[in-house]
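SEQUENCE-TO-STRUCTURE ENTRY
===========================
Question of interest: how does this chain fold, as expressed in backbone structure tokens?
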Amino acid sequence: MGQHTLSWMTALLVLLLAGAATSALAQQYSQAEPVELAVSAEALDSADGDTIRRGAYLARAADCTACHTASDGPPYAGGFAFETPFGTLYSSNITPDAEHGIGDWTQAEFTTALRQGVGKDGKHLYPAMPYTAYTHLSDEDVEALWTYFQHVEPQAVPNKRNELMWPFSWRAAMWGWNLLFLDDGRFEPDPQQSDRWNRGAYLVTGPGHCGSCHTPRNLAMARKTDQAFMGHSIQGWHAPRLPAGEGTSDAPGLADWPENEIVQFLQTGAASRSAATGTMKEAIHDSLQYLTEDDLRAIATYLKSLRYEDGETVIATAPTGDNSGLSPSVASRPAQSGTAQAIRIGKMPPPAVPIGDGHGGVTAGERLFMDNCQACHLQGQGMPGAFPALVNNSATAQDDPSNLIKVILQGAQGVQTQQDPTVLTMPDFAWRLNDKQVATLASYVRERFGERAPERAQVSPEQVAELREQVHPPEPDAGH
């Protein structure tokens, strides 16, 4: 087989792999209970008890249950379907069952799969399993994960055979992709940074694999490392940028938020300026809410050091002092409107934004907002602890309007967590508003509350129609 043919097949497989990885992340969110420790009390009381607990914590930090537990299946028994344009991938059984799981694996084989994407007997894995991030895990943490998974309850659940058309079923092509894009190496602490910063960097880039969703991809669907965490669109949802500074979006990055608000968002899925949507809800429900406060603050410390300058993501010194947790990019910005400044420094609630011209006149967008949104979101300031503010909310301020459109169309549901067990629901409007109305409403919200220039706030009916296909309800009559 010629080199050109191999390159062609590798490129096609890469598209499949990216589709598989992103499609898993875009599965419908479920409020099902997350996997518990899944080990016996006897195991926890054994000599390996502390290592098992550490492995269980890491498995949650890495959100292993999201892919390795089917919605109707036992913990870690696999069978989760990754739908792609080229067929279906299924996650594997990683319980210690000797026939169907990893019970007959060695620790060395487990380590190679986790860090290099090569399973037992040299079989290449697809990067729907984020081994490009797990390669950074320390030896101690890999051993803890191995010990934990050797003590979870074995499940004799056969692995489902992937249903992929040829040549996408040809795993050997992954060798070339790994050669080009797998940076195989352990995390190395930065001696110039604090222990807390290094812990956060390790969690974000290693087990948390945050870049899998938040980092843009190149033509081969590998992550663009120079634009780390600058946001990426996945199956109709947009994972927003995280770094502060200038960039491709008017929306402030998570690094612009006060530390306490970042921690609150990771624990509960809600903060004054945003509520988790799409796959972030799953990550919080199954994983992030269970991290210790120290680890969440370490993550916040690392995130607040991220800046986007001169076309690349760089590390800046985390802000000090009591500047309401503002990152340097916000603290040094020119004076902004009272509304924007209040929400950015975390005042709750932000000031109301006037609606209408003061003389009873309203635009079509204002009328749609008053009829459908104002009862809960008031005049953009929202209700603390219930409904997020719309003012400079990432969904209203970022370049990509997908999240705002999808939330209008299909509604939204809060994340049920230990800290906040009450789930509030926003109704869907796909049945009520046609594409033109949704576009008018979204354009108004982006301009008024996202503070975007009118020409950059516009959403077209065509954009709405494309996303409506993913939501399924038909467009109502234009005269509704």
